[in-house]
Amino acid sequence: MTPTLVRNQLGADASAPADAGTRARDWAEIQERMLAPLYEAVYDRMEVGAATRMLSLGCGSGLAMLVAAARGAHVTGVDSDRERLALARARLLPDAGWDDAPAHSPHPARRRARLLQDGGPAPVGADGSPYNLITVFEPIGCAAGDSEGLVPALRSAVPLAVRGATVVLTGWGPPERCATAAVLQVAARLADTARPPRTEQGRWRPTLRDDLEDVAARAGLKPDGSGRVSCPFGYADVGSAVRGLLSTGLFDAAVRATDRSQVEKEVAEALHPYRREDGTVWMPNVFRYLVCVT
């Protein structure tokens, strides 16, 4: 129903710069956890629990769903990335198919989870009730056009929720408060070497103050509060940082314009200011979320 971060921002391409399975694993094992503070902050504010029927758009490899299910929520995840969905299934439904886990499943999270690919979700949540919370945990605002697939996905999802349901959108914070922004500029610079010139779609740009509000307005949602969350990106070493960052897809255009080894080299160089004495990499970042009602 909605693309993943990679597809939203850059578009699926046969010339994708890395094996899809490897990139999905790098995302799940290295990068996805960087957003865990964002998930927890939103769930705390929304008081996510047993009464929550959540639809996760662009659920990726399922960490946000797992956290919600651990709080007692019934969760349905939708994504178009087969590899990430396979990892989400391994986390949430290891003994079931792509649809609902059997009612007799001994693991509570497995009885409350459902994963769907490429089509619209069923008109009810995993337990048979309409959704009352829709989440989009794939941050927008650092690439041109990265919200274009999100607006129609939201318009399709809203009718499946109860009247007055909550929708939470997330985005990157101001560039001056996101150390990773300096590294992402490497992607823009390398992509500029492409010949013939590529369109602006998917290219890095500074986050704008009203990115989330603009999406909400186009999707017919009413803003009802917002918040900011510190989500530092911490890695064991530079190599892990490079793998994690490239798994986001934000460097795909740069890889196609040059080659993967050059991108890896220049990203590693850009990470030097954030390397600590013990070899770890630490980049403070702030992410923003917007609470809306249908």
Secondary-structure map:
Layout: H1 5-10, H2 20-31, H3 36-46, E1 53-57, H4 63-70, E2 74-79, H5 82-92, H6 108-111, E3 113-117, E4 131-140, H7 150-157, E5 161-172, H8 180-191, H9 211-218, E6 222-230, E7 233-235, H10 238-246, H11 252-257, H12 260-270, E8 281-283, E9 286-293
Parallel strand pairs: 1-2, 1-4, 2-3, 4-5
Antiparallel strand pairs: 5-9, 6-9, 7-8
Regions with pLDDT < 50 over 5+ consecutive residues? 1-17, 97-108
Structural class by SSE content: alpha/beta
State the order of secondary-structure elements, H for helix, E for strand: HHHEHEHHEEHEHHEEHHHEE
Biggest sheet statistics? 7 strands, mixed
Please state the overall shape, judged from the principal axes of the Cα atoms.
globular
- In DSSP terms (H or I, runs of 4 or more residues), the helix count works out at 12
